[in-house]
Task: inverse folding
């Protein structure tokens, strides 16, 4: 007599083994997928970490620069006022030339300039200099020595060695100026 | 692996942006500006100049300064293209020589050599790349570059070539209006029609896009290649000249220097009037005649400005009508409106656009930068940097616990990005307090009762100790899914308790907004209530400390001083029974003054036994102890102490 049970047991065992093999295959697949996901998560994390470190470094740098930048913005906004003051002093009526009140205003202009220079403002040399687009902006071409700034229409300034406003100039085109004709008045604007 | 950037390669200006920590950031050029002139030149000395520097010498070197090269990208002689002029016409308007290649391609001459337009554009892209690499401190290898929606295949390919020549792996060429839509996150919408209104310095473009299944389709484009912010500036200048002539009899149009100043002043006034109702145009010494110097000082109101430019703004609506008709849509069928270009900052423009399309346009992103920003976002998406799994959330409302006096003490402020964790040390409010109740709150109000209770639990087994001595560490931890765990740990005994709460359950956006509004409305009275609680706590602490000091120094204090202080303590305690805060405050102050006498007395005694210390001012007695807090009926609150 052959007991049924062991046979069933055997079949069960075979079935169980089959299921186990399938399980193993499925598990291997799942493991591969999880590994891939873990790798991509790690990569994402590393990238975020790197981004953060770079951002921190730049934030520190910018923190240091921000004071300087804010000041240069303020000074840039004040330049038109300085321009106007210069214009005023350049246009003094003959009658007023000796008046002491006018002298006072002149001193004030000097003081304003000195204060700004102490903060880091410096004038860009333009008149008579070779034209340099890093420092000057050519607004027109004029008669005069080729490549030389012959007129300054608006003063240029640097703030702590960075150009905050290029000088607006007229550049000579090579034709010589007539001696008879008067020069265009060099009011800075 | 290098970074990927987004580049807006414009006709007059270009911009570059990059994703940084999930946010797009515009990268400034080495000269410090976000806007970069699309100009290339060879100087007389043979040096190649790109950007701002090239622009500054354009007038003295017109033949070798190449500008607006975008108009020639991907084009041939004899072929019409998009909305541009024929090459012949465009070439005539340029100060540099435009020549013909072997198959009628466009070439430009610069410094004695001939270049293709992509080569010139590549020089601009190269400078952008170099400056950006210096700024970021890392290599940039890939880019998304934008083009007008009306560019054809040849024009797009030329742009891609330019990118390749500059050393980029060009991930994609996308349309400028599409980039603008991306900047506003419109790519997550389904099946919508979007109108992109682009009013810049010199040109106007309107595009109608359709988005479906994540892709953008351009349905129609129209515009005006000679209408922009510069025209509005001109109107202001003309008006200023007319007013000046009327008032002072001089025509400023004859004075080149005055015109220069006027142009800058006009643009400045126009910009200011976008935020204020009127401004002064103030130009001293604008000119002079026989009678002396003349000054220009004219007030320009926003209403007057709008009058001066109304017809120009309305002129933009005609191409809008055309574009809608070409796209087969009515304005009602447009779901979203996006604004691009600096001139769209003007209230009149925004108003007309809103009127025309019948909806509020999107305008939160800087309109000068929106195209570059959108390109950067696209670059980020293509590089897998912007993945759903990394989209981080924020807590919409402040989370905290209740402390002495019914006050809500915040631990995690609202809008904190999660996941996040925060802990703080608290203490007991009464002597020998055996347990603390952690009452977890959500909301912006300073008083616990006005906020939402998320949960409560008790940590017991605290060893007997004077109030303020035990250290209870309370930690809040929110994971990426918004699940909050609150833990309380007695650092002395090591015992801990915790609860887990799903924070976001039950609160809709509207409810969150409502809670924030309520907090704002009640801010004043809440502040007052909080101050009252603090005054009470301070009074209570003072009384407790006074009692302790009297006990500890019984033998050192004279009897009458002792009595005086005791009377003051009683006064404080009875003031605390009532609700008059001023009475509480003044009683506290009197007790404090009385306490100082004790300190002085004790130190004097010491001095009689020792030489006096060098003069350094009087020290207050014993310093102020950390504010202890009185408990309510059995409920015990932790003390706020800086960690």
Result:
């Amino acid at each position: 007599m052959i007991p049924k049970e062991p046979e069933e047991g055997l079949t069960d065992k075979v079935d169980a083994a089959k299921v186990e093999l399938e399980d193993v295959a499925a598990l291997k697949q799942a493991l591969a997928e999880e590994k891939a996901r873990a790798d991509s998560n790690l990569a994402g994390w590393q990238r975020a970490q790197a981004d953060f470190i770079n951002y921190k470094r730049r934030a520190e740098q910018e923190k240091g620069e921000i004071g300087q930048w804010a000041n240069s913005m303020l000074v840039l906004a004040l330049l038109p006022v300085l321009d106007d003051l210069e214009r005023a002093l350049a246009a003094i009526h003959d009658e007023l030339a000796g008046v002491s009140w006018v002298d006072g205003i002149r001193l004030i202009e000097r003081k304003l300039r000195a204060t700004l220079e102490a903060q880091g403002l410096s004038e860009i040399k333009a008149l008579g200099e070779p034209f340099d687009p890093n420092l000057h902006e050519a607004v027109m071409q004029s008669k005069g020595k080729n490549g030389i700034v012959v007129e300054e229409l608006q003063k240029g300034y640097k703030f702590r060695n960075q150009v905050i406003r290029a000088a607006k100039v007229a550049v000579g085109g090579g034709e010589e100026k007539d001696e008879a004709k008067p020069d265009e008045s060099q009011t800075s604007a | 692996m290098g970074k990927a950037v987004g580049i807006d390669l414009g006709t007059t200006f270009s911009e570059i942006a990059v994703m940084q920590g999930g946010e797009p950031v515009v990268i400034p050029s080495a000269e410090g500006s976000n806007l970069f002139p699309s100009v290339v030149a060879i100087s007389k000395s043979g040096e190649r100049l790109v950007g701002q520097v090239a622009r500054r010498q354009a007038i003295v070197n017109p033949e070798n300064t190449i500008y607006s090269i975008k108009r020639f990208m991907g084009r041939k002689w004899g072929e019409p293209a998009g909305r541009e002029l024929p090459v012949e016409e465009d070439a005539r308007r340029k100060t540099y020589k435009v020549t013909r290649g072997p198959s009628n391609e466009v070439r430009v001459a610069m410094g004695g050599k001939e270049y293709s337009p992509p080569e010139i554009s590549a020089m601009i892209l190269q400078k952008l790349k170099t400056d950006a690499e210096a700024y970021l401190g890392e290599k940039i290898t890939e880019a998304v570059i934008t083009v007008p929606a009306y560019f054809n295949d040849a024009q797009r390919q030329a742009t891609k070539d330019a990118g390749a020549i500059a050393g980029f792996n060009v991930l994609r060429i996308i349309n400028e209006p599409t980039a603008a839509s991306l900047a506003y996150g419109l790519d997550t919408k389904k099946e919508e029609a979007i109108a992109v209104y682009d009013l810049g310095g010199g040109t106007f473009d309107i595009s109608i896009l359709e988005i479906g299944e994540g892709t953008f389709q351009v349905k129609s484009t129209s515009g005006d290649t000679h209408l922009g912010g510069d025209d509005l500036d001109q109107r202001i200048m003309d008006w200023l000249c007319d007013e000046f002539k009327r008032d002072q009899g001089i025509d400023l149009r004859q004075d080149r220097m005055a015109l220069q100043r006027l142009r800058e002043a006009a643009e400045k006034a126009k910009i200011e009037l976008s935020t204020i109702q009127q401004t002064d145009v103030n130009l001293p010494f604008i000119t002079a005649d026989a009678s002396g110097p003349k000054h220009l000082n004219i007030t320009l109101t926003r209403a007057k400005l709008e009058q001066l430019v109304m017809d120009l703004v309305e002129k933009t609506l005609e191409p809008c009508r055309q574009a809608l008709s070409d796209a087969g849509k009515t304005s009602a069928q447009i779901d979203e409106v996006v604004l691009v270009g600096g001139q769209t900052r003007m209230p009149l423009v925004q108003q007309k656009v809103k009127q025309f399309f019948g909806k509020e346009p999107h305008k939160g992103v800087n309109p000068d930068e929106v195209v570059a920003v959108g390109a950067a976002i696209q670059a980020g998406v293509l590089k897998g940097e912007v993945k759903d799994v990394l989209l981080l959330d924020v807590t919409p409302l402040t989370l905290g616990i209740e402390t002495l006096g019914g006050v809500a003490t915040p631990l995690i402020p609202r809008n904190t990005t999660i996941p996040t964790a925060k802990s703080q040390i608290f203490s007991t409010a009464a002597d020998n307090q055996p347990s603390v109740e952690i009452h977890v709150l959500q909301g912006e109000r300073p008083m616990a009762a006005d906020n939402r209770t998320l949960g409560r639990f008790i940590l017991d087994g605290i060893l007997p100790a004077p109030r303020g001595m035990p250290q209870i560490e309370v930690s809040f931890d929110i994971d990426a899914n918004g699940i909050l765990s609150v833990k309380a740990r007695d650092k002395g005994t090591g015992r801990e308790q915790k609860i887990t709460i799903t924070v976001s359950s039950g609160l809709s956006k509207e409810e969150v907004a409502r809670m924030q509004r309520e907090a704002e409305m009640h801010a004043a009275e809440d502040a007052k209530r909080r101050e009252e609680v603090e005054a009470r706590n301070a009074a209570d602490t003072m009384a407790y400390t006074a009692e302790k000091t009297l006990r500890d120094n019984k033998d050192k204090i004279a009897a009458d001083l002792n009595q005086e202080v005791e009377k003051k303590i009683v006064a404080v305690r009875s003031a605390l029974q009532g609700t008059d805060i001023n009475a509480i405050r003044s009683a506290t102050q009197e007790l404090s003054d009385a306490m100082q006498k004790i300190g002085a007395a004790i130190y004097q005694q010491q001095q009689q036994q020792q030489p006096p210390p060098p003069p350094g001012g009087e020290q207050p007695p014993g310093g102020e102890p950390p504010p202890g807090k009185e408990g309510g009926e059995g409920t015990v609150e932790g003390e706020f102490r800086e960690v």
